[in-house]
Every structure is written in structure tokens, then in C-alpha cells.
Specification:
Layout (H helix, E strand, L loop, with lengths): L8 H15 L10 E4 L2 E5 L6 E2 L4 E2 H16 L6 E9 L7 H8 L1 H6 L11 E2 L4 E8 L5 E11 L4 E13 L4 E5 L10 E6 L6 E3 L13 E2 L2 E2 L1 E3 L28 H4 L2 E5 L2 E5 L11 E7 L8 E11 L2 E7 L5 E10 L5 E5 L17 E7 L2
Parallel strand pairs: 5-15, 6-10
Antiparallel strand pairs: 1-2, 3-4, 5-7, 7-10, 8-9, 8-11, 11-12, 13-14, 16-17, 16-23, 17-18, 18-19, 19-20, 20-21, 21-22, 22-23
Helix pairs in contact: 1-2
Length: 369
């Protein structure tokens, strides 16, 4: 197995296996039966049984997809649960929710069909706004969803629970809508996950400007697994007898795709600029920052020049104290542009400074700001 970042390793491999299994199963074009309950329009049926004839999906397959997610979380005891951002649903949208999910996050709905069968009592909120799926780590994890308000005191502004929307053990996924506007600029929903065998996680569901959930915890040890990755097959460890289709293949990036980007892995941050190299043979400057220990500030460890050539990232680096690293490192970028797979120099065996001991390849994840 190639070394992927710890929060993506097992989900990527399992996602491939599940996607292959789903390809051979059922009629995916027939939506499940819809109901409408309370203020949540188009809630999803939670029927049980061997075969949901309306959906054309075997209930055992939906259960299998959820179990694969549990297995992925069990791979790392840091996770308190998993989350996926499913998109923004407009107020007044009357599309059945399962049809909306198939349209707005088709890949994830296909890979994780349990999303289409979450019953009405586990669909929370007004039925519009940002939609998240929260999955507890296991059956020992207490999941609590609260509607909160913010109250000013003499010294600070603190949150107060207005209503407990949901609280249960049992590792069952929930969907929750969160809607903010100018009159409610502060988070109004709080999620708490309390596993018996892992860290507690408190989270205000929100996404950044790129639609990526803001995950609590250290970037190298997140408290929640972002399982939206299951909707896009990533990684290079495909089964030997399976050839990925064009839209999921990891290809070498162009020089322009790497320009003005930042990449991270454990205790390292890589900053790639453009057009500021005095050497005309190179595209720009690259700076490598290292965090000496947890909690300490990153310091400049290497600086140098870079270019892309024949699918390789060519680097000439210096630590400013006589040490240098030079090599041509094969690179591949995932279709979303969020992950960069880097290998050691095939000819010399040289590795970039950000590789760990006994590591011949690594995945970098893109950072912003």
C-alpha cells in the first residue's frame, strides 16, 4: 500500500470496492418513496426489509455502505464521528429530498446509499439551508444536536441551548439543515459527539468559501472524518483488475496548476510561487516550512526553485547552511485539485525533505491562506 494521509487512507480504498459493487446492483434511476413530515419537506423513507422495490436498491447494500464507513472510522481512534457537506437547498424547493441528493451529490449518494434512507425523525432543521450528514463513530457514541442562541453577559457572549433537536446512542446517521442569514450571523446549531472509546467532539456545522466543512481538531489529527471523499474515488491503490475511468484518474499537474498553491503534510507546509525565479529554466520559488514540534510555529527550512518536466516536480532546494536536495519527483493530482501524490526520484532514490523515514511516496493536501 502506498502511504496516503491518515484521514484518507482506508476510505479511499474502501470507496473503490464499494463503487465496483454498486455498479453491478439495481436500477439506480428509480428514486425511493418520499414522505413529508413536519417542517422538513421531502424527507427520505426509512423502510426496512430485504428489497425496497420502489428504489431498486437492496437494503443490505445500504447497510453495507454504512458499515464500511464505520470500519473506516475504526481505523483511527481519533475520530469521534464522520461528516459530509451535501450542499445548499433553497427555501421553497419542493424537489423530493432523495432526488435532490441524487442531483446535487450524485457520486456520494451512489457510493453511500444509506443517505437516501435516513428516516424523517433523523432529519433535523427547517428543510432548507446548508445540509450536513453526521454519523457517530459507533454504537457507544452519544450524538446530541442542539439549537442554540447567543447571550451577552458582562464579560463575554456565550451560547445557550434553546432546544435539544436530537439525542441518542446507536451510531445512526442524521441529516441536519442549518440556515444562517444577516439576522442570524452566529452559528445556531451545535453537534456534540461523545464516544465511550475516543475523544469528545463539539462542532458548529459550517463550511468555508470552497464548500469544505471546517473540521475540528488538529489538521493532522481531525476529530471528524470528512466522508465526502467517498463520492470521488481518490488514491492510486486501485484493485489490480480495475481501471479507473477518465474522470477519476490522477494525472500529473501542469506548471500553472501548481502556481500559487500551498500544500501540507505532517509538520510541513510547502509554498509554491510563480515567475519569481532568476533562473529561466525554472517556474518560480518554492519554500518549505517545518514545525519543529507540536504547538511550535513553522520555520523556513528549505528554499529553492521548481519546474514541471515529464510528469515530475523538479526541485533544487537549499537549507541555507550547506545542505541541499535535488531531484525529479513524479507527481499526480486528484481530479478535485485538493491532493497531490508525490514519489521519490525514480533514478536516484532521493526523497524530498517532507518525506518521513522509510517513506517513498506521500500525499499532500491543499491548504489555503
Amino acid at each position: 500500500m502506498k502511504d496516503l494521509i491518515r484521514c484518507r487512507l482506508l476510505p479511499a480504498v474502501l470507496c473503490v470496492a464499494l463503487a465496483l459493487c454498486l455498479t453491478a446492483c439495481g436500477d439506480k434511476d428509480t428514486p425511493p418513496v418520499e414522505t413529508e413530515t413536519g417542517s422538513t419537506a421531502g424527507t427520505i423513507s426509512g423502510g426496512k426489509g430485504g428489497k425496497d422495490s420502489a428504489a431498486g436498491v437492496d437494503s443490505k447494500l445500504t447497510e453495507k455502505s454504512l458499515n464500511l464507513l464505520y470500519d473506516a472510522m475504526a481505523f483511527d481512534d481519533q475520530y469521534a464521528g464522520a461528516v459530509a457537506y451535501l450542499g445548499y437547498r433553497e427555501q421553497g424547493d419542493s424537489t423530493p429530498l432523495s432526488s435532490w441528493l441524487r442531483e446535487n451529490c450524485a457520486g456520494l449518494a451512489e457510493a453511500m446509499p444509506f443517505l437516501l434512507y435516513i428516516p424523517a425523525e433523523r432529519i433535523l432543521g427547517p428543510g432548507y439551508g446548508d445540509l450536513f450528514c453526521i454519523v457517530p463513530r459507533d454504537e457507544t457514541t452519544m450524538l446530541t444536536a442542539e439549537h442554540i442562541t447567543w447571550v451577552s453577559s458582562q464579560f463575554e457572549v456565550g451560547e445557550v441551548t434553546e432546544e435539544v433537536l436530537y439525542q441518542a446512542k446507536g451510531a445512526q446517521p442524521v441529516l441536519i439543515f442549518k440556515n444562517l442569514d444577516d439576522s442570524h450571523p452566529l452559528p445556531d446549531v451545535r453537534i456534540t459527539l461523545e464516544p465511550d472509546n475516543g475523544p469528545m467532539c463539539g462542532w458548529f456545522p459550517e463550511v468555508d468559501e470552497y464548500g469544505v466543512p471546517r473540521i475540528p481538531g488538529d489538521p493532522d489529527a481531525p476529530l471528524l472524518m470528512d466522508f465526502e471523499i467517498w463520492g470521488v474515488v481518490t488514491g492510486l491503490d486501485y484493485p489490480e483488475d480495475w481501471e479507473p475511468s477518465e474522470d477519476v484518474r490522477w494525472d500529473p499537474p501542469t506548471a500553472w496548476e501548481l502556481a500559487y498553491t500551498n500544500w501540507s503534510c505532517e509538520h510541513w507546509d510547502i509554498e509554491i510561487s510563480w515567475g519569481d525565479s532568476e533562473d529561466p529554466d525554472y517556474e518560480g520559488i518554492v519554500n518549505l516550512y517545518q514545525q519543529p514540534a507540536d504547538g511550535q510555529e513553522y520555520v523556513l527550512a528549505y528554499t529553492g526553485v521548481w519546474r514541471m518536466e515529464s510528469g515530475c516536480l523538479c526541485l533544487e532546494l537549499s537549507d541555507g547552511m550547506g545542505g541541499s536536495v535535488s531531484g525529479s519527483f513524479p507527481v499526480r493530482m486528484d481530479p478535485t485539485g485538493e491532493y497531490l501524490y508525490v514519489e521519490q526520484d525514480w533514478e536516484t532514490g532521493v526523497c524530498p525533505p517532507f518525506f518521513g523515514e522509510q517513506t517513498d511516496c506521500i500525499d499532500l493536501f491543499r491548504t489555503y491562506g
